[in-house]
Amino acid sequence: GKHMECFNRKNYWSPYGLVETCSTMAWIQLNKELLRITGQAKYAQEIEKSAYNALLGARFPNGIDWSYHSFNNGSWSIANFNDCCPSSGALALEELPTLIYSHIKNGIALNFFTESEGTIQMGKGNLVKIKQETKYPLDGKIQLTVASSKKEAFPLFIRIPDWASSATINVNGKTISGSTLRAGEYFPINGNWGKKDIVQIEFPFEMRVDERSEQLDGPQNASEIYSVNWFSLSRGPLVFAADGLIDGKDRERSLSLTSKSPESLFNPVSPPQGIDGAAYSLKVPGIEGLLFVPYYSAGGMKKGGWRLTWLQSEIVKE
Known about the structure:
Blueprint: E1 18-20, H1 21-38, H2 41-55, E2 69-71, E3 73-75, H3 84-95, E4 101-104, E5 107-110, E6 116-121, E7 127-134, E8 141-148, E9 152-159, E10 168-171, E11 174-176, E12 186-193, E13 197-202, E14 207-217, E15 224-235, E16 238-243, E17 255-258, E18 266-269, E19 279-282, E20 290-294, E21 306-308, E22 311-316
Parallel strand pairs: 5-9, 17-22
Antiparallel strand pairs: 1-2, 3-21, 4-5, 6-7, 7-8, 8-13, 9-12, 10-11, 10-13, 14-15, 15-16, 15-22, 16-20, 16-21, 18-19, 19-20
Helix pairs in contact: 1-2, 1-3
């Protein structure tokens, strides 16, 4: 809506959306409680989406400054030191370690993928240590070392992200059949865990172009007043954004995409110095190549730096 801190009508969507860092913290906390109450993977998924995009995208490299509002299509801004958002951003980061592993049913759930170690109490007097080695969210390969002080049988629940078209899971050198893997759910590995078991997981990171429509309907359910198509780019758990303005000056411009395979218009390129992970160049008629990098790093992570998450599209029918 026009006001920055209010609820919008049902199904409202705008490419000019923004989120307050306090809201990101509250969303993470809400989903943490829903995960604890229900044990459903979709709540862990929401935490991952917020943590690796909106939350990190509001944090400045000095570790002190935060944005008050993070814009999908806008520039970096710094909140006043005595505003609520700098403390809320730090609180949200502090929530994340407690979310990585948890008890679900009679086993252990892996909710959050990140380099980590944790110790979980299972059977009487049995401590289970889990070490996670990974470059996630930049890479989909994860290795778990499970060390149980006493040999014990219990399920290890692996969360399969809702964007994962496939997954490979290997336990002590043996590949588990992926026929029962379902995106957006937990996959149980029933094992008799000992002093050192190795679980290897791989989620293929594929580029995804998402399309949304910004619409304004007429009164009394009349025909729409206008409808504009927009698109964005994601890879694995990360949303990507254009690093700067179009041709260095425009926030929006109608760009021509092919309706059959818009992903083919994004070409992998070497990321700029200081940025980890993948980078893509979008080349369409009428503009210079637009560089896309992870949302949290687009705009140079500096005050006044622009990032464009949603670009206006003109779908070309072939």
